[in-house]
Every structure is written in C-alpha cells, then in structure tokens.
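[Q] Does anyone have a clean structure-token version of this?
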Amino acid sequence: MTNLRVSLTPKCNLRCIYCHREGEEDPQEILSAEEIINVINTGVGFGIKSVKFTGGEPLLRRDVTEIIREVPTNIESSITTNGTLLADIAHELKDAGLSRVNISLDSLKPERYREITGSGLLEKTLDGVSAAIDAGLTPVKINMVLLKGINEDEVGDLMDYVRNNRDLILQVIELMEFNECSYHGDVDGLERDLDRNAKTIITRRMHHRKKYCMDGAEVEVVHPLHNTEFCAFCNRLRLTSDGFLKPCLLRNDNLVDIRGFRDEGLKDRFRLAVSRREPFFS
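[A] Here you go.
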C-alpha cells in the first residue's frame, strides 16, 4: 500500500450524471482536520508515499489548505477537483504543499458540459486549469469520463486541448457504473485506435495501464472494469469522509471504522483494512 485517497467531503457544487461519490453510501458527520491528519500520519508510518484528496468537491471544504499544509513534506499530495473553485485558491494550495491536481473536464462544449454536470460552469473550470498551470500544480491531469452517446466524439478535441503543452495530460476514464445508466463508452475501441496511431506507448508501473504519445498529446486510459491487472496491481486504500477505511472502491461490505481510534488502536484498524483487501476482478 503506497497511496491513500482521502475524501474530504461528500458535498459538491455539480451534479454529474455519472458520479460514484468515491463509493460512499449516505455519509454522516465528516471527520475533522485533526482526525484526517492523524490517519494520514498513521498511513505514512506504514509506507504510504502519496495522498490524493477527493470528494465530493474537496475545495468546498474551508480547511482544505490547513489539511494539505499538515501532510508530511516528503509525501506527495494531490487533489481531484472539478476545477470550478480552483482559480482563486490554486496558488494558496501550492504554497501549502500541494504537488499537482486532476481536473474533471468531460466536454469543451458549454451545452454538453451543462448536460453532464448540471451547471454552466465550464469557463470556471477552464480558468481553474489555467490557474493550476500558473501556480505550478503540474502536470495537470484532465479527467474525461467517456460517456456513450454524449462525449465520445470529443476525445480528439480534448487531445487538441492538451497537445503541445507539457503541463497537461489527458486521462480518459472508463465509466464506473454504480448507478443504473447506459452511458458506458467504448474504452476498448478507443484504446485500440490509440494503440494503432501512437508514436510511443509507455506501460505505467501502477495498474500496468498505458500512456499513449500522440503528436504532442499525452493520453492515459484508465480501464478498471473487468480488468484483472488493474485490481492485481492496486496500491490504494481509501478513507471516506465520515471515517471508514475502504479497501476497495467497488465494495462496501468490508469497511473498517476508524472513528475514535488513535495510536496503536488506529494502527490495528489499518492492519485490519489491509487484511480485507482482495482483487475485485480476479
């Protein structure tokens, strides 16, 4: 286990049609900043090397910079955000020690963006991308969830958006179908096209997923469903916003409650969570 994903809040200012809420079910009272930092420090003691803050929308949490500032300096910290609130806080996040950001951007077309997110905040998101680059929160990964019949035709447009900019990487993500929906895009077909046309293909150590270099555009494909390699090489443990260690995104029957535990008790909770890990697809 080398990566800890920390959900700071279940709240969000968008209503994306595909949102899986980091696998949280009806979260109640959220953890305090002190409790979160205590969990992170315990994880670091077990060899955690990087922390990714998620939500909901993590920037809705007012003490987000306070939390980031308390992450040990030798640990990489990053954040996944919809970008709509990022422009005003990007430099503050960098000064607090944040390394980089992932920004959700499923469409460059205003009306389509509104259809996917339930909001008209595309320009705010694009401003957030620019602010992140300016603040040095790089490389900025642009997260595009591939949605059947909605944005499959925009992969090329998003590739053009990141092309010839070393600070931007396009990450095309397979839809995690937690809700009943029929938006699952053809990630296999996309990856075959990328494989045929890429000048260079790099297989990443984490999850053995591939990175395609396409005429100045860097594209990664996140393909977790029915993927035994993705699960076999998973290095993540999750902390829900309301205080549970979550060994697998796709399961909620093996959570470990950490609320009220400290020191050796919290270490035992980590050991229990890790003992419950097993590949979802095997």
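[Q] Thanks! Anything notable?
[A] The CA atoms of residues 8 and 241 lie 5 Å apart.
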